[in-house]
Amino acid sequence: MLPINMPRTNSNDNMCTLVQWLYTSGQRVREGEVLAYLETSKATEDLLSPGTGILHELAPPGEEYEPGYCIGYLLMDEDSASSGPVASSHASKPVSFVLTRNAQELVKRYNIADEQLASLGKKVLKKDDVQALITPPQSMRKQATSEHRSHNQAIVARQVTLAHQSIPAAFSMIKIYCDAALQAMAEYIEREDVIIGWPEVLIHELGKMQQDYFAFYQHLASGEAVAPQQKNNPNIGVTIDVGTGLYIPVIKGVATKSLAEIANELMELRLKALRKTLREEELSDGHLTISLHTDKDILMAIPLIFPTQTCMLSLCSEQEELYLNKDKSIGIRHYLTLGVAYDHRSINGADAVRFLQEIKRRLENLKDGGL
């Protein structure tokens, strides 16, 4: 009998959530197969089978467990399965239902236990009855999504509390006129057939700035600045919320990636956030973070600084305004606001303004050939 223990996937977590078992007790699994999904404070992780054998589950999903806690066993052969804890936990009961032929096929395909079938409370089970066990009703899926968001929000709450308690933050904001950049982006999309927006462009430009604005890319350990491992090739995080909770995935080594590579990678990260399959390594080692507030009419947002980083940028939505041309005629131009919340222990206000002014210069002078 081989124990299945809750692993320590994140050194900062004392608990880990067992989200879902992918097999049921009594099923045979092979070594290295994914047994269950776990959720840490940062990501969803796979729990791999430590060996080959018959699964016996001890811990119900949806609960938190400490690293090292035994959540199940693998029984090494069929004999032990028939006499061990699996048999005792699934004591045989009289079969009080019959299955149609189509229902039998589903039961066999998905290895549905008699107890699950009996729980439906029907004497004759049809294909649709069995299908209901495989595909939960929409209301149950909505509840699961809501529960996931609640759990994810609790993780966000811990980070927010830590940021408020430990980081003396200040904030500056700048206005960026962007008609020329919008034209350059439209030409790039048509030429390269790659969809880009302000997040991709900003990440691309930030990748070129670390050498001259090093303080904004540092890490802080116990309040002391620590040099990034990838000097002049930073890792940039970006907030993503596609309805499954707030995540901050990190694009690594942006200085050596093209705009198209950044755009494709960011799209993959959005899809993973939607499917809740982001991994620990995709959410760690960021040097600075962009907080997106691009919904219509958002003019300003003051972000919190991600703990261990020295700043966070806030990118807001495009706006229109009227202005007077040199000949006194009235024109329309587009602009956006970009803010930076910065750790005042490492960065002073004048440095923050220069940082924003450099980003403004870069974005306002974008030409199609520079993308």
Task: Compose a concise summary of this entry.
InterPro entries: 2-oxoA_DH_lipoyl-BS (IPR003016), 2-oxoacid_DH_actylTfrase (IPR001078), 2-oxoacid_DH_E2_comp (IPR050743), Biotin_lipoyl (IPR000089), CAT-like_dom_sf (IPR023213), Single_hybrid_motif (IPR011053). One of its GO terms (cellular component) is cytoplasm. The chain contains 10 helices and 19 strands.
What does this structure look like?
- The chain has helices at residues 78-83, 85-89, 101-110, 114-118, 127-134, 138-166, 179-192, 198-206, 259-275, 349-364, and strands spanning 2-5, 16-21, 28-29, 34-39, 44-48, 53-57, 63-65, 70-75, 98-99, 124-125, 169-177, 219-221, 224-226, 236-238, 250-251, 288-293, 311-316, 319-324, 330-343.
- The protein is α+β, with helices and mostly antiparallel strands and 371 residues long.
- The strands form five sheets. Strands 11, 14, 15, 16, 17, 18 and 19 form a seven-stranded mixed sheet that branches. Strands 1-8-6-3 form a four-stranded antiparallel sheet.
- Strand 18 (319-324) and strand 19 form a beta hairpin.
